[in-house]
Amino acid sequence: MRALAPIQKVDFALSSICLGHRFNREVATCSRWVSHSGDGHLYLAVGVLLALLAGDAGVTFFFTALIAFALELPVYIILKRLFRRNRPSHIPSFITPSDRYSMPSGHTAAACLMATLLSHYFPSFAVVYWIWAGCIGLSRILLGVHFASDVIAGSLLGIGCAAMVLDWAVI
User: Fold this and answer.
1) Mean pLDDT value across the chain
2) Is residue 2 situated within a structural domain?
3) How many domains does the chain have?
4) pLDDT level of residue 116 (50, 70, 90 thresholds)
5) 104 preceded by a cis bond (ω within 30 of 0)
6) Position 66 pLDDT exceeds 60
7) What is the 3-state secondary structure (H, E, C) of the chain?
8) Is residue 152 in some structural domain?
9) Cα(35)–Cα(101) distance, integer angstroms
C-alpha cells in the first residue's frame, strides 16, 4: 500500500480542491443529475431504442453492449473487493453511495464502456458521448464519493471491456 501513497496524496488534494469551495452545494445539484444519468436506466433505453430504430447497426450495438456489460460487471465487482479502498471521508459527500468501496468508479466504467461502443457504431456524435462520460466521472468526484484515481480506473475498465468485446466481435 505504500506504493499508492503518492497517488492517495494527489487524490486527497484534488478532492479538497473540488469540494472546498463555497459553491459546492450548487455544483452538487447539477452533479446529482449528471450522475443519475449514469445509473444504468439510460443505457438500457438507448440500447433498446437503437435496436428498434437504427437497423442492423442498432441491433449489433445492443448485443455488443450486453456482452460488454456482462464482462465489465463481474470484473468491477472483483476489483472493488480486491482494492477495498474506502470512499472519501475527509470531504463533504452529497449522496449516499450504494456500497462501501470506491475503486474503481462503476458509474465511470459504465459511461466509458457506452461511449466507446457508441463511438464505434455511431461515430458522428462521438464527441458528445465522451463529454457525457467525462461529466459522469467528474460528477462522482464533485459529489464526494470517488477520488480522481477511482474515476481513472473506472475509465480504463470501461474502455478496456468495450475494446475487448469489439475485438472479439466479427461484426
Assistant:
1) 87
2) no
3) 1
4) very high
5) yes
6) yes
7) CHHHHHHHHHHHHHHHHHHCCCCHHHHHHHHHHHHHCCCCHHHHHHHHHHHHHCHHHHHHHHHHHHHHHHHHHHHHHHHHHHHCCECCCCCCCCCCCCCCECCCCHHHHHHHHHHHHHHHHCHHHHHHHHHHHHHHHHHHHHCCCCCHHHHHHHHHHHHHHHHHHHHHCCC
8) yes
9) 17
pLDDT digits (tens, 9 = 90+) for 32-42: 788 888 888 99
Mean pLDDT in residue range 7-28? 70
Name the grid cell of 162.
Answer: 468495450
Residue 93's domain comprises: 38-168
Residue type, 51: A
CA distance 106 to 48: 21
The CATH number of the domain holding residue 98 is 1.20.144.10
Contacts for 68 with CB less than 8 Å, ≥ 6 apart: 113, 117, 161, 162, 164, 165
30, part of any domain: no
Residue 45 falls within a domain, yes or no?
yes
* Its pTM surpasses 0.85: yes
